[in-house]
Amino acid sequence: MELLYGVLSGLITAFLIYIVSRLFKHHRHLNLLFNKYRYYYRDIRFSIAYLYRIKIDDQYLLIKGNRIEQFQPIGGVYKYYESFLSLKELYDVKSDNPQNFCEGNDLRIIVRGKNILNIIDWFNTRKNREVTIYREFYEELIKSEIIDLGSLVRSDIEFIKQIEPTVKYSSHFKMQEILIFEVYELHLADQDIRQIKASLSNDKLILVDMDSIKREHIRINGKDCKIGAHSKYIL
Known about the structure:
The protein has 235 residues and is an alpha+beta fold. The chain has helices at 2-25, 30-38, 85-90, 116-125, 135-142, 151-154, 190-198, 210-215; strands at 43-53, 55-56, 59-64, 71-72, 75-77, 94-95, 108-112, 156-162, 167-170, 175-187, 205-208, 217-220, 223-226.
């Protein structure tokens, strides 16, 4: 009897140590820890991206979206590298449907609930994935000839924050979703600011105030224009 009591006591102690260690490790993500078990065998969509905060004269620079009719911060989805493929198999990661704007190695992925904390922990190691954030800077501002290539050298890019990930139901994708955004502030040189201001008449770029971003709406030349809900993260 004493032997049985000792075994049960040891098992209970080990279980409590495991629970406490998990809570300590993920104390910042207790909601995700709960949802890991709530959606253990269900698919959850991830979209992991970076956004630029570009302030000019106390206003925020937004760009017209290529796929959705709205204005939004310049930025893009991170991409994973070939070295991620073994982890992709380990965590049973599926790439999102191309109809959902997923291209190549985009970190628009689908995993089971049991692996959401593994994916977040992996992402924060910065391994096996894109860590530079110049791609969309080049695509949206340099390749489109709004500013020149030298702006890359003249600009300073400062990390601001990572938006705390949560599980929310997406009515668009009809599934639970986790959005992770990293926000960087782009400090432009005066000559590049002048070039951007000169390009504001091309209806692709706009400067908006904080209130417009919070309202997710702005009126331009008598036309109502939507501002993407994720734009609030750059404030």
